[in-house]
Write a structure and sequence with these properties.
- This protein is of the alpha+beta class.
- The chain has three domains: 68 residues, no CATH class; 97 residues; 150 residues, Alpha-Beta Plaits (2-Layer Sandwich), CATH 3.30.70.
- Helix content is 62%, strand content 10%.
- A five-stranded mixed sheet has the order 2-3-1-4-5, sandwiched between helices.
- Helix 1 packs across helix 2, helix 2 crosses helix 4 and helix 5 packs antiparallel against helix 6.
- The relative contact order is 0.08.
Length: 337
């Protein structure tokens, strides 16, 4: 029998988890509490290592980091789960292709039999007539079997489509940020690996978008309004990204856009459009009718080879923003080299 905490011990751990959140200056949401509880009770070595590494580098813990930690370590969304889904997706695609190929091949065979019936030659007319009748009977029977098979394949196709839809839903949980709907870092790494395998020389432009004074807005108006602002700004940012681009939520108040095969100066022009677009947004509280302050962005732009790691792309491009945030906001900084 596994050891279970007494009520008194459970209450002590609960209070300790809430106190830990207070020390981290993080609100006691259910997700944050779950991470804090698991951290204090050392439920996951990987979780504790990730948190301690974040703190050791002088970075603050925030809702975004704890949400990512919860999804990755508490829920157990491991790399194996993502790979399993990819494998299942590939198998389904192979099954569909095989079924289609089999159907085409069978129809071709039947047509060839029909076409070649007239080519049969024999000196015995009765034998020819009998053979033709038998072939026709066989082909008709085969066609009936194929019609049944087609019905079965159609039913299988419907089941496959339903399963694929379920897999798509699971992929969203793994690869999308739940608040903004943008891709997360796991998806970013996956895309970089795919681009690298297709073309090791491919260049990708990177745009790091940081929301100016977001933490002050969060403290002033609370997390609910901050989440609404984040979502609206994320939607605006992603509207400037084409089909080949990848919009990522890389931190609580930060977005990253990857643009494959786009030159740095073109990426800089896109960054300026994003900055102007968000600057023009106006936010009004639906409950109180209070007009919120306008939001602005600080943006860094650079480019990399796709072999560069996701962390390096983010940290190096983020450095372009950090170089100017002490003196400038609402500004785009494009790397010189």
């Amino acid at each position: 029998m596994k050891y279970h905490d007494s009520i008194e011990q459970a209450e002590q751990k609960m209070h300790a988890a809430i106190k830990q959140l207070q020390l981290w200056h993080i609100p006691a949401t259910p997700i944050n509490y779950a991470v804090s509880y698991n951290y204090l009770n050392q439920k996951s070595k990987s979780l504790n290592t990730a948190i301690e590494k974040q703190l050791a580098t002088g970075k603050k813990l925030d809702n975004f980091f704890l949400d990512e930690a919860y999804r990755k370590f508490v829920l157990g969304q491991s790399a194996f789960r993502g790979e399993l889904i990819d494998d299942l997706d590939e198998v389904l695609g192979d099954l569909q292709a095989s079924a289609k190929h089999s159907s085409v091949s069978t129809n071709k065979l039947v047509n060839q039999l029909d076409d070649n019936i007239a080519s049969l030659k024999s000196t015995d007319k009765h034998e020819i007539v009998t053979a033709i009748k038998q072939i026709r009977q066989s082909t008709q029977h085969f066609k009936l079997e194929q019609e049944k098979l087609a019905e079965q394949l159609h039913a299988s196709q419907q089941s496959t489509d339903a399963l694929r839809s379920e897999l798509d839903d699971v992929k969203k949980e793994i690869y999308l940020d739940p608040l903004t709907g943008l891709y997360n870092r796991k998806a970013m790494t996956k895309h970089l690996d795919l681009w690298l395998s297709n073309d090791p020389t491919k260049q990708v432009a990177a745009i790091v978008v940081n929301i100016d004074h977001f933490h002050q807005m969060n403290e002033r108006f609370g997390p609910m309004i901050s989440d609404v602002l984040l979502t609206k700004i994320a939607n605006k940012v992603s509207s400037y990204v084409g089909e080949s681009g990848l919009p990522v939520r890389s931190a609580e108040d930060e977005f990253l856009i990857l643009l494959p095969d786009i030159e740095r100066n073109i990426a800089g022009e896109i960054a300026e459009k994003i900055r102007h677009g968000v600057e023009k947004l106006r936010f009004i509280s639906s409950k109180s009718g209070v007009r919120l302050p306008p939001m602005t962005l600080s943006i860094g732009v650079s480019d990399y080879n796709v072999a560069t790691s996701a962390n390096s792309i983010i940290s190096q491009t983020r450095g372009l923003i950090n170089d100017m945030t002490n003196t400038l906001t609402n500004h785009v900084n494009v790397a010189n080299t």
